[in-house]
Amino acid sequence: MVYHVYKDTQNKWRWRLKAANGNILADSGEGYTNKSDCLAGIASVKASGAAPIEED
Q: Nearest-CA neighbor of 6 among 35, 44, 26, 37?
């Protein structure tokens, strides 16, 4: 897997988590004005690896 960081059509930073086959598994869901904020969003997702799973 790889995190892909890019600028969208509104010149905002976004990220996508891509599987080895190129499928998108997750994305930022929002655009960031600063690249550092985008990278912090990735770090936040990485840190959530121990988050519990909830089911309805």
A: 35
Tell me the pLDDT band of 19, cut-offs 50, 70 and 90: very high
CA distance 34 to 3: 17
In a domain, 52, yes or no: no
Q: Would you say residue 55 lies in a domain?
A: no
Return the DSSP state at 32: B
State the CATH number of the domain containing residue 12. Answer: 3.30.160.160
Q: Which value, in Å, is the radius of gyration of the alpha carbons in the chain? A: 12
Give the total number of structural domains in the chain. 1
Cα–Cα distance, 10 to 32 (Å, whole number): 10
pTM attached to this predicted model: 0.84
